[in-house]
UniProtKB/TrEMBL annotation:
(6R)-10-formyltetrahydrofolate binds at K64, M89, R90, L91, I92, N106. The lineage of its organism: Bacteria, Bacillati, Bacillota, Bacilli, Lactobacillales. SUPFAM superfamilies: Formyltransferase. The gene is purN. Residues 1-181 form the Formyl transferase N-terminal domain. This is Phosphoribosylglycinamide formyltransferase. It comes from Melissococcus plutonius (strain ATCC 35311 / DSM 29964 / CIP 104052 / LMG 20360 / NCIMB 702443).
Length: 206
């Protein structure tokens, strides 16, 4: 299964996915990394593993549509079947969603629909809730509003600081994201093989 990973920052989830691929527990091929921040550490992670990396900013384009059309050219060039978001800090627009409906996956550091947006861990901590967690979901036009695929709870103890909670949340992300992706892509690969066999049989009877 050919995928592209979109990221904007450090790339710890990108690294977690890479590690599982090396262990042959994730049936995917990373065709390229796309990053919209030229100084982001995730680019170094990709290049260290000889993974192709593209980087350009939406600011270089007049409209979001033009920006996403350029991305779409890259995706088509590399025959990418799925897009994985790993800390990509931009909303996906209609141009990409049109071609990748329910084939764009994101991970968010809260139990959606609670605490949407960029500061989810801090907001959960400041709210004094007893638990938070992570959510893996399909991407739609809204902010963290797509169909939920999986969630896992993380209790917040009285001893937790914001820093310790962030660390625990990220550790949970690194464990769950590759597992859920492995399940999704294993099923997708089986369906792809089944559909190909069915098409081959139908062609024989034409």
């Amino acid at each position: 299964m050919k995928i592209a990973i979109f990221a904007s920052g450090n790339g710890s989830n990108f690294q977690a996915i890479l590690d599982v691929i090396k262990e042959k527990k994730l049936p995917i091929s990373i065709e390229f990394l796309f990053c919209d921040q030229p100084q982001a550490f995730v680019i170094k992670r990709a290049l260290k593993q000889s993974i192709l990396a593209y980087c350009f900013s939406q600011k270089s384009f007049t409209t979001k549509e033009e920006y996403e059309m350029e991305l779409l050219k890259l995706l088509k060039k590399h025959q990418v079947e799925w897009i994985i978001l790993a800390g990509y800090m931009r909303l996906i627009g209609t141009t990409l969603l049109k071609y990748y409906t329910e084939r764009i996956i994101n991970i968010h550091p809260s139990l959606l629909p609670n605490f949407k947006g960029m500061h989810a861990i801090e907001e959960a901590y400041q709210a004094g809730v007893a638990q938070t967690g992570i959510t893996i979901h399909y991407v739609d036009q809204g902010m963290d509003t797509g169909t939920i695929i999986a969630q896992e709870i993380m209790p917040i103890s009285k001893e937790d600081t914001l820093e310790s909670l962030e660390k625990k949340i990220h550790q949970l992300e690194h464990q769950l994201y590759p597992k859920v992706l492995a399940d999704i892509f294993t099923k997708a690969e089986r369906k792809k093989t089944k559909d190909a066999k069915k098409a081959s049989v139908n062609k024989c009877f034409e």
